[in-house]
Amino acid sequence: MPENAAPGSAGSEGAAPGDAASRERPAAGTWPAPVRRPTGRDVARLAGVSQATVSLVFSGSEAGRRVSDATRERVREAARGLGYRPQAAGRQLRLGRSGMILLAVPNILGPFFGRVLEGVHEEAGKHGLAVVVSSGWGSATLAEAATTSRFDGLLICSPDDSQLGELPADTPVVFLDADPGTDRARPTIELDVAGGMRAAVEHLAGLGHRRIGRLRSTHAAYTFRVRQAAFEETVRALGLDVVELGVSLNEGQPAAREAAHRLLARPDRPHAVICDDDVVASGVYQAAAERGLRVPADLSVIGIDNVPVAALLAPPLTTVDLPGEELGRAGVAALAGLLRGEAVAPVPPLATALVRRSSTTRVTRSPSG
After folding, report:
1. Distance separating alpha carbons of residues 275 and 182, to the nearest angstrom
2. What's the rounded Cα separation, in Å, for the pair 163 and 154?
3. DSSP letter at 20?
4. Mapping DSSP to helix (H, G, I), strand (E, B) and coil, where does residue 161 land?
5. How many Å apart are CA 205 and CA 200, to the nearest integer?
6. Which of 180, 250, 188 shows the shortest CA–CA distance to 220?
7. Signal sequence span per UniProt (predicted)?
């Protein structure tokens, strides 16, 4: 615009709403004001229709069909030209929804839950949903979230027994990696953690290990009860000896390292260890190195989760892959179905798999270890 052009002169009348030409240059050392977003009124003026017609076109309701095809296209063309986007809040108000879902996980710092969140975000975008993540929640927090209008539905992942309370019957909820008996009126999507544990024990037995160490989670959660039951059943069937200790997963690698030291200090120490997650396995690596033991020559190690750190350890960790991304996607797909008022079909337990890397090896000593 020419320097002497005044507001309202011919040099400024042609600027479209939100056009850079319609903004004054900000003073030095200041942040420029945000560009004004085009409104429904701007679209109506450009399309030559009323503002009510613009609202009908973008309402997404049956009423929008009263507008002729030619007028609808003219309005949409004007909106595209201006870069107009209908306000989501207005649509959500009409539908009685917030457009947000809550993903509740026990520990947001747990790497496995990062995998779950990746799948949740990916699937939520396909259904026009936004995701909020909550960690360290309890039954009261969940009940409060379920009874407000902030969230359209809840995804509750790997809950501890103490974290589950009474949830309103009219709140859409999907449980992930949880006991299918928690609430039989709501969908539960499980992982085949029992199959993964059996594969881990059988792998070590196939390598000649007869005494298996185990660092198991102390958390009172269904997923850990299932894997422990599968461990006990498999070692009993194979006639293996067991040395095990409990460890708190929320305390991370330091707690795992301390527990591993106690395990490895035993006179009957095992020469193979199965851990309830990959972070615990990394603690075993550290304790073994501090005791002058080599993985896998002196100690075979198996983790569970297959989080990114597993492949970065030296040597890379053999682990049970729990498909967190698939779990998250399946959970959102089920929740989106509930939000649409659809009946959700049961989902078979998601398959797990043993990922064989370099942290396990065949026994070359007495078969007692």
Report:
1. 26
2. 14
3. G
4. helix
5. 9
6. 250
7. none
Number of domains in the chain: 3
What are the phi and psi torsion angles at 35 (to 5°)?
-65, 135
The answer to whether the CB of 255 falls within 8 A of the CB of 248 is yes
At 12-62, the pLDDT tens digits run: 344 444 444 444 555 665 666 556 678 888 889 999 998 888 877 776 554
Amino acid at 278: D
Write out the two tokens for 100: 């947000």
**Euclidean distance between CA atoms 228 and 250, whole angstroms:** 18
CATH of residue 31: 1.10.260.40
Give Cβ neighbours of residue 65 (< 8 Å, ≥ 6 apart).
none
Token pair of 269 as six digits: 């120490």
- Reduced to 3 states (helix: H, G, I; strand: E, B; else coil), residue 335 is helix
DSSP string, 280-325: HHHHHHHHHHHTT--TTTT-EEEEEE--THHHHSSSPPEEEE--HH
Enter the pTM of the model.
0.74
My answer on whether 215 and 240 are in the same domain is: yes
Tens-digit pLDDT profile for residues 106-115: 888 889 999 9
Instruction: Give me the DSSP letters along 34-96.
Output: PPPPP-HHHHHHHHTS-HHHHHHHTS-SGGGGGS-HHHHHHHHHHHHHHT----HHHHHHHHT
Side-chain-side CA neighbours of 153 within 13 Å: the count stands at: 23
Instruction: Flag whether 344 is in a domain.
Output: no
Q: Which of 86, 114, 144 is the last residue of a domain?
A: 86
Strand partners, 274: 214, 302
Rounded Cα distance, 77 and 200, in Å: 59
Do 200 and 295 belong together in one domain? Answer: yes
Q: How many residues does the chain have?
A: 369
Residue 94 corresponds to which amino acid?
R
Burial letters for 320-333: b for 16+ Cβ neighbours within 10 Å, e otherwise? bbbbbbbbbbbbbb
Q: Maximum CA pair distance of the chain?
A: 95
Q: Which residue has the tokens 């949830």?
A: 167
